[in-house]
Fold:
Amino acid sequence: MEELKYRGKKREGRHRDTWDPFQLNPVGAEKETKRRCFQLAQYLVAVIVGLAVLTSAVIAKGSLLVLSTLSSPTSMRSPKEKQFYMLMLVFCLVCPNVLVFIKSLWRCAFKSFVQPNMRTMLFICAIECLVSLGTSVLVLVVMPQFDVLTNLFISGGVCIVSAIMQIVFRLQRETWKILFPICSLILTVAGYCLLGVDYYVRVSSFVDSQSADCFVYVGIGIFSSLLISLCWWENPLQATNRMQDKLSELDGFRDFAFVISSILRIIVIGAVYLIYHALIQKSIKWSDFNLKNNDWEILQIGLVVFFLQAFCSAACHWFGVVACKIHAVRMSFALPVCCTGPAVLLLGLILFITQAQKLSGADQGSIPAFCESLVNLNNKNTTPVVLLEITRSICRTSLNSYYLQWPFLMLALEGVCMWSGFVTCTYYVWKIKVQRIERTSQLFVRRLYESAFIDLSLLLNTKMKVPRARNQESHDDIQNCVIYLCATMWHETYDEMLKILTSMFRLDRYRGDPKEEHKDCFDFECHIYVDDAFMTEKDTEKRLVNSYVNDLIHVVIEVYRVFTNKEPDDVSIIEAPYGGRLMFVMPEGNMLYIHLKDKERIRNKKRWSQIMYMYYLLGWKGYIVKNPQKISRQHNPCRASLVSLDGEIFLLPQYDNDNKRKFISDEHTYILALDGDTDFQPKAVILLVDRLRMYDNVGAACGRIHPTGMGPMVWYQKFEYAVGHWLQKTAEHVFGSVLCSPGCFSLFRGSALMDDNVLKRYTTTASRASEYVQYDQGEDRWLCTLLLQQGWRVEYNAASDAYTNSPQEFKEFYNQRRRWGPSTLANTLDLLHSGAETVKRNSSISRLYIFYQMFTVGSSILGPASVTLMIAGAFQFVFKITGTLSIIIASIPPVFYIIVCFVAKANLQITIAGIMSVLYAFLMTASFFSIIGDMVINGTFLTPTGLFLVSMAIMYMVTAILHPEEFGMIVYGLMYFICIPSGYLLLTIYSLVNMHIVSWGTRESNKGDGVVKKNHNLLCDRNCRLCCWDMKIQITQETENLMIRQITGQTAEQAPPLPITNQEITQQAAAKPEPQVEVKTTKEAVEEAKKSPTDKLNGKAAKGNGDASSGSDDSIEKKSLSESASDESDEEYDKDFMTADLEKTEERPVSDWVVPVKEEFLKKLTYANMKRNLQEQIRYTLRNKDQDDVCEELVLMLTDTLSGELSGVGPEDVLSNNQLEELRYALSEQARRILKTSRMERLEKRVRRAIEKTLTAPQVQNLDEGEHDFWNKLIERYLTPIKDNKAHLEEVTRELKSLRNKAVFLYFIINVLWVVATFFLQAIGNDVISIKIPKYFPNGTLSDEPLKVEPVSLMFLLSFAILLIIQFLAMLYHRIYTLIHVVSYRSTEKDYKQKDDDDDDDDDGLTLENHIANGLVITSDDL
Structure:
């Protein structure tokens, strides 16, 4: 209700100024609000991860202590038990090395292998052997000699080398923080001293008959701790400039180093075990390893404790990585890990206190007496073994002294010192800053973890993120990036345009002012490329923009009103060699460019638009920022790059991003490819940016595409898209690389597109039949194929959601898939053909992945035969006919449809396919019930078909549950099931037989042409209705083939119509709203519209005037600017500026299309719009909290002044130049008086700037000479409209039909062979050739009669089931990391709060003030 009242109040305000106050409010235009439930869920995940880290660490550490206690020589266990427990201790040390060995060997074998440097390799192996020696000696030799408390405390000393290196290399950001490693060193040494003193007291006090040889073990333990602490030598060194070359070299062959070092570590562990226990102690009796039946308790305890230790240490490491990736370092990582030691001690005390009553002697008065009574419990089976041994181990401390028990405090103090020592050594972990989904290699130095010291291993292995040098920027900080949003439009409807513009304006609001820093560190520009934007007016033969462009202009104005409640401020109309360009400054200051393509000047269609913007944004803009000296007039601050206003000079917004681009590499320049109807949230873009920012080898990333619309075809596609993303794309992402990043929402890395054989080859003009299919029918997939073949990885992010319109009509859907099907197959076969070379270049693609893709391609090729056999099974059960006859009947419709596709026209083919799809849907429903009936008759669902159906249903249900926001998609599963014959049989046939037709097939509307042509020699023109299909049939005498002309981009005006044309009618989604205002143009306004704009010489010229270009003068360096300007006197400067203005006032002829477009934007200067614009401009300019009072006063008074000055002007009249000048003067004077009264004179410049923006008319500009030349050469080299001769077109047609025939023949033969094989197996009979499967009833009893299944069908069913299981497991893995990414995104959305600080007058970027006395002075901190 509050929202209704708010909207009503805003409408009333608009109604005071105009009779047309009504406006659209597109979905999603409202400001983002943080979902509290989602935030709670995110924090809940962080808490759960933290508890998992703590729990797993406590169990892992406690299990190791239990094993060392059970295997101790002083244990009350038998030698056979001690020997087995010691072996379990060895396995605990070996386990992490085996895991690292397997992972590293996999990466070496299937990812990448780099030849190692032998010297570095030997150094690494030596270090690893020393560490393994120290670990095995401490765990296998020393710890069994000590009590459990000493073992818990002594591990804290492994941080001593790390502390020493921190002190030596001075790795602290602040000097005083060197106290932390110094304290750590002192505390660790003190702990070792207390350890020696404690054992001296035990020996001298005769505690538990302690012998003097314990001092040897104390010394060995200290030495072993020093060796173990060498494990993390790399962490301090990587934070300095030392050995950087060696470390970066090591990164190349680290996988191979881990393979070798893991083997060496296992050998060292085994050697220590055998040398000490077999040769020195001679405690190993090999026959005792043969455990008998009565040794079950030993086996049970040993294996359970071992598996707990091995599993929990690995889980602790994994959860620790997750905690860092989700931005919960303190709460979920550092705190739990630091608390592991105290938690183990506390848990032990709790268990002892609660369970001690079960031990005999618990009621003894003294501790020594209690400890003596434990000996008698050794042979009692009722006593818990673990509790008994731990209690017995505690009795070895000074607590069991008959003389003095206070020395036990030394042991406690030793524990405090050791724990404090490693906490102070790893103090930096608490302040570490991590990025979202940070790479594990950027979080931890080593991939290996030490299972014996899991808590210390995690903390010491965490990367020290400190500056590598005082004069070098840290590589760990988040990298700034530039994102170019590039949308290609082709005959979109008004509502579709509304979606993409709303999404762009949402991102503008999310990013905020580009001159301010953003926590996500990105800047962006929006570019829209409109294909077929012009038409020829029938009567005057003028080249004007068509109705699609008019719709787009209205949408921009409408969306701008919704987001800001005012008209667009800075609008520029620019003529260009390819047609024209409209330039807008979005509400927050980011730029929007609309490129209008004239198909008579530049090549049409989506791929050529992509080439156009890639060359412009990556080629041209990248060139000029790298070569600023190439740009003419760069030292003249009076040119188009700067505009003068009240003695100030400002860098225009359109040059701001180009200026920042100079400091951003091509690796962090991204292009977001969009369709003209894509709807997305800012979050979706940022999540894709994270993938490219974190992983340097990722060339592209795509999001989850959701089809939108209504009707059965959309329902089918919703489930199809869901299954495709849930299972297929996730499997591709996990096992290798995504093969297709859809062009409707994909982020590409600039350096990847600029790589060899990518963009250059992408410009290839198709000349052969196979190229038409691969290049032009699925350009997105081909571009990804080029990236994969060059070694780049393509990823899929399931949390990045985008919505796009899908075909709602059966015909449009079939035509779309007619393009996609052959293109998908062609590109996949191309990738498989170059598989060996791609595997060498691309570390993400392995031979196994190539085999996986071969299997999926084979499954898709056999799809028609599989569907035919499924239909045959339905016939067999429903109509009780034999298997052979059912196969023959089921094969008749596909053969019939193949013949129809060869002899009939495309529209008739689709009509017949629609009718057959309905019939097949009924049959599929019968098939569904037949499978259920078969299970009922057999009395079990454990048949191959029944098991497959049930498992499929369960798998899809679980998959949907794991996608809670998309769970509703499961409802469309039934629609998908009954449409399987249409989608996998009829559509495949239609796509293959019509492969030679390479027109787009969708959005083929002539709505925007504007030229009404007569149909010569028209024999028949009728509108027909068949069932629910509307058709328009025209028959003419012309025989030329329009389709072939459309292949080569030739215009429709130059080609005669088809012989028989079923006119393709595109349903417009919604009627276009009428413009809000009707312009009653005065005589002066008409004259102004016909002239090119002129800049006023009085210093109050509108911001944006001049000879501007989109990225031509953007490389003006601020330093050279200030130097060139500071040498001029005020008089020379004014003279220069006046000369520049006079140059701009010269008349320039403009194209015919410019005038009507400018008139559309001149509606901004009507009274109704100007009043609203002025109010919003003032409020935005004075948006700080402490300026609210003066802001409202200015709004009130300036509105009154405006109403008074324009009292005689109608609400829809456009003001003339004289009226604008008078109004500008009146408003400026009124504002000056108000600010002087309020003692806010410092705000005067900002208020006058707001007034200027309100009164600024749209500017007509020309491109810079350099950019103009770039476009001419680009069009000449790559984008000239193709005009092929008749002979070439006939040759292309012949080649396409030949390719079609070969593909159909191959498909036909493979599927026929499959069907024939099944047919003969049916004919021979199940009794002769079959696989017998035991038949079980639901109650578990075995039937006497087994199930008989054909071997071919069973093998295919098993293969398909294995494929689905593999995809399902990949989906589970992918869901976990998607959850990590989503949780890590918390608290990163922009908070829309008012600013508290005062931004003074320099908020328009680079500001150079022209003071009379001081000359040109820099006032911005940006320089």
The mean pLDDT is 79.
